[in-house]
């Protein structure tokens, strides 16, 4: 069985698999939760294939995705690099972004318990709380590093200015952002900032939330409660233009002797040796 290569993520010493596994859709947002035994088997297969960089968040479920990962990692914890996130609270059917120190610590303790681990490898701030200075949130994360509860700090969906300010308080290991063949605005400012500061880049939704699997045909099979049904890119007025993009990707993939998803991933992997997806 072919295995996936390894890479240095950022400049703080973290090493991960070149290809990661995002676990969100196993428990939330992409239709109903998937059968737990099947998902645990999938995670184990990924690890055996060399995909050891696993991504979750406390908002996935909420909480149930972390519980799933905790069960799946029994006996294989030392083989994986585990990333989870804090910063979005769910309540009364709404999401609230929060980054105050008390919440940061509470969220970390909760994730450690659900994942059944002693230390989180990479802890992302899932979304930036603009109500308080980023320095306040990163200051608390720095304390968690010093206490051994987390190893590395990451940011998700942060501006270039915020990344700089956060990095000045404590080195940021990775920035997670949407980057794919149909989402490239990050190339203007955020990617150069990360590279200037030696911060690793983790691209989420590299397959366009599944669009680069089958194009508009994807919508025929989405469950009723799949949140992609509400995204602008999946609305009728945008589908024709997006299908044109997929058709071009599909044509090139055929010439290369691969599938559209393989081509989409290969494109990202060729953006630099500091990119993981």
Automatic annotation (TrEMBL):
UniProt key word RNA-binding: no
UniProt KW keywords: NADP, Oxidoreductase
Domain NADP-dependent oxidoreductase: 21-273
Gene3D superfamilies: NADP-dependent oxidoreductase domain
Protein's recorded name: Aldo/keto reductase
Pfam families: Aldo_ket_red
Keyword flag Nucleotide-binding: no
Organism superkingdom: Eukaryota
GO MF annotations, alphabetized: oxidoreductase activity
CDD domains linked to this entry: AKR_AKR13D1 (cd19145)
Source organism (scientific name): Medicago truncatula (Barrel medic)
């Amino acid at each position: 069985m072919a295995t996936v290569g390894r890479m240095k993520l950022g400049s703080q010493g973290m090493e991960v698999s070149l290809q990661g596994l995002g676990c969100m859709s196993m428990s939330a947002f992409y239709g109903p939760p998937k059968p737990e035994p099947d998902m645990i088997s999938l995670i184990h297969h990924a690890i055996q294939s060399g995909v050891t960089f696993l991504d979750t968040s406390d908002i996935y479920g909420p909480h149930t995705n972390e519980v799933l990962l905790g069960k799946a990692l029994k006996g294989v914890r030392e083989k994986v690099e585990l990333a989870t996130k804090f910063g979005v609270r769910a309540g009364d059917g709404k999401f609230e972004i929060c980054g105050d120190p008390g919440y940061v610590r509470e969220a970390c303790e909760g994730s450690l318990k659900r994942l059944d681990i002693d230390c989180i490898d990479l802890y992302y701030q899932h979304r930036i709380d603009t109500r308080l200075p980023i320095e306040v949130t990163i200051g608390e994360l720095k304390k968690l590093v010093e206490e051994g509860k987390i190893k590395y700090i990451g940011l998700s969906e942060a501006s270039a200015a915020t990344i700089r300010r956060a990095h000045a308080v404590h080195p940021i290991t990775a920035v997670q952002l949407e980057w794919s063949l149909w989402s490239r605005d990050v190339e203007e400012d955020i990617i150069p900032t990360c590279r200037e500061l030696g911060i690793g880049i983790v691209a989420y939704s590299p397959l366009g939330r599944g669009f680069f699997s089958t194009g508009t045909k994807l919508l025929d099979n989405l469950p009723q409660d799949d949140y992609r049904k509400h995204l602008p890119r999946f609305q009728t007025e945008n589908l024709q233009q997006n299908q044109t993009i997929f058709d071009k990707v599909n044509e090139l993939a055929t010439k290369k002797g691969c599938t559209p998803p393989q081509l989409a991933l290969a494109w990202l992997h060729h953006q630099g040796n500091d990119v993981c997806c």
